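Work Package 3 (structural annotation) set out to generate three-dimensional models for the target panel prioritized at the project kickoff. During this period the team completed the workflow that converts sequence records into discrete structure tokens, so that structures can be stored uniformly alongside our sequence database. As a representative example, we reproduce one entry of 470 residues exactly as it appears in the project archive.
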Amino acid sequence: MELQNLAISRSELAYVALGTVFVFFGFASCAVAAIRRRGEVQVLIWLGMWSGMYGTSLLLRTDAVREALPHGVQVCVPFVFNAISFLMVVIALQVWAELTLGKMRLLTQTMAAVGVAIAMGGVGEFMATGSGARLLPYNNLLAVCALLVLGTVVAVPGLSERFLAFPNSVLTVSTVAFTVDALYRNVYRWLHLTAFNLPLLADDLIFAAFLFSFAYVAGEKVFANERRLLAIESELEIARQIQASILPAGTPTVEHLHIVAEYLPMTAVGGDFYEFVQMDRGRIGFLVADVSGHGIPAALISTMLKVAMQSAAANADKPAQVLGGLNRALSGQLRGQLISAAYLWLDVEVRRGWYSSAGHPPLLRWGTRGLERIESNGLLFGVLPEIDYPVCEMELNAGDRFLLYTDGLVEPENAAGEAFGSEELERVARLYADRAPEELSRGLLAELRRWQPTAIGQQDDITLIVVDVA
């Protein structure tokens, strides 16, 4: 009797130890997924639920654990066993779905949906009658079918390469072993055959190897995506440095002009571009451009603008020819993207300015007649290869102020869905009319941040250039 009790206590201790390992692993997987919060960690959530449910079932097998539970919880143990019996198949299929591709992923998700329907019926029957055994054969049949299909996919190299996201020899061996064990146990029960006497916990250890091989493959998937993200971030940093190198390092020194420029890309790299084309200390051109879209594609095109501007700089004092040359150089290279641009040429010696634009927001000018919008618009770059751009000529007076900007300054919306717009821009411009250009620049960006809801980040690249005539 003492030897028998000792054997029982040892078996219970083994179940408690193994169940605790499964539960701990389940919590750890879910914790990692919660910390990382990325789409690829969804497999860790399903894996954690699978491990936790299996560990819970092992713990509840032991009398010591059940007797240690409060009486109110003990009453629920049969229900927990019933729910786990049905849901284990569903959770396992969800894990498989995260590791499969194409039609196999669709088939796995379909089997999981069937499993959900069976589980709802089985749990509902248990709650109504106290027994959910009537649907358990169907649940077991679904498990066997899933094992046969997925085991075949894993075992056949051609199928695994086609339908598995991460073919792996560890997963292959453990899946085949678990499939053989599970099929054997189900077959001898159905056919009422005599079973071989397996060592204590043999089935559970086989399942542990099966589950942890999934963990290994899931970890490979997560860290492979992480390495890919790190590589992308490294490339983005290089792209940011390259883009920074093509933008002006500072503002030029021009007699009787005070110049301030701000460039705020929405992401690491942006689609806005600006350039100063200075002939001498009294003559300078200002180009501002906005490529449609964001990120790397827009940044690449803005780099093309830099190269195209070098050839157009020979006609820097002729805005129409500058824009026309840029449009000709870029036509056929934009792959469906468009560019708006504005070019302002100021000649302090003759006190004259010339302005032209290609589908760009209007130039704002403060002068003797107050605040003016100056529009001299032609078509966007990339629409037609040959376009004539109209030019507006103006007189320069002491105290004049010009503001060139991209639409990222006027398009952001508030919580009510109202755009910042030209009216709000002009209100802030009038508010800072008597202040330095730096204060106007900072004030505009501060008002824009206040306009947008705090939960919403920057939605577009922002570029602005303020020019004061002394």
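The two ends are 106 Å apart (CA to CA).
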